């Protein structure tokens, strides 16, 4: 079966000019992702993962090359991003935050209310609808930020280590919840993470990036059946084999990144 | 458990004592003033006497003159303040959101900012005469830069991720102003408004002393000219009251407009 292509990156370069000179963040990045697939991106710190995601989100431009996201339904936004850091707007209530994207898209108020009510239930924050972010825990805030992205019903969901700042238990619960919301929506997802576990639990494909300047080292298919169970998955021999394979690839790059950092300071 | 209860009781006791002290000390000072003045240990030609001031206050209140002065001063401050706040906030937001605007306007503000606002009074008298426009423009011009600078600082301090969120959802220009820049800058804008209120009170008195026929500043100045010391003290008392009420008002406004701020 052939699934149509949703995202394509062709020779993407990104150069930042800073006071200390040019920094090549991305160098000739090429990949493509089929519609409805969940792609996890792993790579050493500073390899340009976030830059790549920001380019896909339209928040940065490529210095050379191009990305193409097939935008089928003009009624839906092409992308919506879940940011790594706390990005829930402090001056809006939970309800206003979840509906923020829809409001900017000039959706009808009763449509916004219906969608927001639905997601308040899904993320279990119905009782906190009128609370302000300062009254929420870190995990609750990230749930709001995920709901805000889902609420605009984007064709592609971009997630930048959304649960990285949370404790292990919360992280696992939210990963589970994320899969539950995502399954059945048919959305294409690009998900950045540091954790191989997380990548394997969530994704259909894992893209491994090299140390900076970032480029694609390898893309590996994750042939694990869904729905997946976070507990038993770790004992699955396929999971273990994939974990080792990815770790070996990643290890080389992490070591290279460390050496580069040493060169720079030494 | 016993000891916590004891601690609590002690704490309550201490707090009640604090309250008693903070009411008693000003009253004590007034009593001391009255006593010293009656004993003629201080010169009543300069320092008057609380009971006389109170009598004058009552007379002015009953005659309606006091209310007239207070209301007109209040109106001038409010109108002048609004005339400053609206363009000040808009300019500050625009400078914060658009780099070229900031680059063009910032040096002008930096050059004008250090001029003591009182130095503008003669020029404003020349331009506007002694009418209401003069008083309003004095306050407006005195406060506008302060409000602009604080609004700009407020926008600059907004975490850029919030702007990214708006951009990612396809925000238009209006959305950037109304859903990110303005609400995000509000806490610092209020700091500017509080500072501006202090400047406004200073300027209203100065403007009313040199170019007005009403208002608290006028009242204080005429008291000096006719050597009605009690009336002058009433004017000073009113200014203190004015400052207190305006701070209270801005604080209330702040709590109402920024309910999302961690207290």
Provide the spatial order of strands within the biggest beta sheet of chain A. 5-6-7-3-8-9
As a percent range, the share of strand residues of chain A is 15-25%
CATH architecture of the largest domain in chain B: Orthogonal Bundle
Total of helices of chain B: 11
Largest sheet of chain A: 6 strands, mixed
CATH topology of the largest domain in chain B: MetI-like fold
**Spans of chain A of 5+ residues with little confidence (pLDDT < 50)?**
none
N-to-C SSE string of chain B, H for helix and E for strand: HHHHHHHHHHH
**Mean of pLDDT of chain B:** 93
CATH class division of the largest domain in chain B: Mainly Alpha
* Multimeric state: heterodimer
**Which structural class matches the secondary elements of chain B?**
mainly alpha
Radius of gyration of chain B: 24 Å
Backbone CA Rg of chain A = 19 Å
Report on this model:
The complex is a heterodimer of chains A (266) and B (263). Chain A is α/β, with parallel strands linked by helices. Chain A is built from nine helices and nine strands. A six-stranded mixed beta sheet of chain A has the order 5-6-7-3-8-9, sandwiched between helices. A three-stranded antiparallel beta sheet of chain A has the order 2-1-4. Chain A is globular, with a radius of gyration of 19 Å. Chain A starts with a strand and ends with a helix. The model of chain A has no long low-confidence stretch (mean pLDDT 93). Chain B folds into two domains: 1-47; 49-257, MetI-like (MetI-like fold, Orthogonal Bundle), CATH 1.10.3720. Chain B contains eleven helices and no strands. Chain B is flat, with a radius of gyration of 24 Å. The two termini of chain B are 30 Å apart. The A-B interface holds A 54, 57-59, 77, 79-81, 83, 85-87, 89-92, 100-101, 103-105, 132-134, 152 and B 159, 161-162, 164-172, 175, 179-180, 183-184, 186, 258-262.
């Amino acid at each position: 079966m052939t699934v149509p292509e949703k995202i394509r990156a062709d020779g993407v370069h990104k150069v930042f000019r800073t006071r200390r000179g040019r920094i090549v963040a991305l160098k000739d990045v090429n990949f493509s992702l089929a519609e409805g697939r969940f792609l996890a991106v792993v790579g050493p710190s500073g390899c340009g993962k976030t830059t790549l995601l920001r380019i896909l989100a339209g928040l940065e431009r490529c210095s050379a090359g191009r990305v193409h996201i097939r935008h089928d339904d003009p009624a839906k936004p092409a992308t919506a991003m879940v940011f790594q850091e706390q990005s829930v707007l402090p001056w809006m209530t939970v309800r206003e935050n979840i509906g923020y994207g829809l409001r900017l898209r000039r959706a009808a108020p009763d449509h916004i209310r219906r969608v927001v009510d639905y997601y308040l239930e899904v993320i279990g924050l119905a009782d906190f609808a009128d609370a302000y972010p300062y009254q929420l825990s870190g995990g609750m805030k990230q749930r709001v930020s995920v709901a805000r992205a889902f609420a605009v019903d984007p064709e592609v969901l971009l997630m930048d280590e959304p649960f990285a700042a949370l404790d292990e238990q919360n992280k696992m619960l939210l990963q589970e919840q994320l899969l539950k919301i995502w399954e059945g929506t048919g959305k294409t997802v690009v998900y950045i993470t540091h954790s191989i576990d997380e990548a394997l639990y969530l994704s259909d494909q894992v893209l491994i990036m090299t140390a900076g300047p970032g480029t694609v080292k390898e893309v590996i298919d994750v042939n694990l059946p869904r729905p997946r169970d976070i507990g038993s998955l770790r004992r699955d021999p396929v999971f273990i084999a994939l974990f080792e394979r990815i770790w070996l690839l990643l290890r080389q790059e992490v070591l290279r990144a460390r050496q580069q950092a040493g060169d720079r300071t030494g | 458990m016993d000891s916590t209860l004891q601690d609590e009781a002690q704490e309550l006791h201490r707090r009640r004592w604090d309250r008693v002290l903070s009411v008693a000390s000003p009253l004590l000072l007034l009593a001391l003033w009255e006593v010293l003045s009656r004993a003629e240990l201080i010169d009543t030609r300069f320092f008057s006497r609380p009971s006389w001031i109170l009598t004058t206050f009552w007379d002015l209140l009953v005659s309606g003159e006091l209310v007239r002065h207070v209301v007109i001063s209040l109106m001038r401050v409010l109108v002048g303040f609004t005339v400053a706040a609206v363009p000040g906030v808009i300019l500050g937001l625009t400078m914060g959101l658009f780099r070229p605007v900031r680059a063009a306007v910032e040096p002008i503000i930096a050059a004008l900012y250090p001029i003591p606002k009182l130095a503008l009074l003669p020029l404003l008298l020349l331009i506007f005469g002694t009418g209401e426009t003069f008083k309003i423009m004095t306050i407006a011009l005195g406060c506008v830069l302060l409000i602009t600078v604080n609004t700009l600082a407020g926008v600059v301090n907004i975490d850029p991720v919030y702007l990214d969120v708006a951009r990612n959802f396809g925000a238009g220009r209006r959305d950037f102003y109304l859903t990110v820049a303005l609400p995000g800058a509000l806490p610092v804008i209020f700091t500017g408004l509080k500072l501006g209120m202090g400047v406004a009170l200073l300027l209203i008195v100065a403007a009313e002393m040199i170019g007005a026929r009403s208002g608290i500043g006028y009242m204080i100045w005429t008291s000096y000219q006719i050597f009605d010391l009690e009336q002058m003290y009433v004017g000073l008392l009113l200014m203190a009251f004015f400052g207190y009420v305006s701070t209270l008002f801005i604080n209330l406004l702040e709590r109402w407009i920024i309910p999302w701020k961690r207290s």
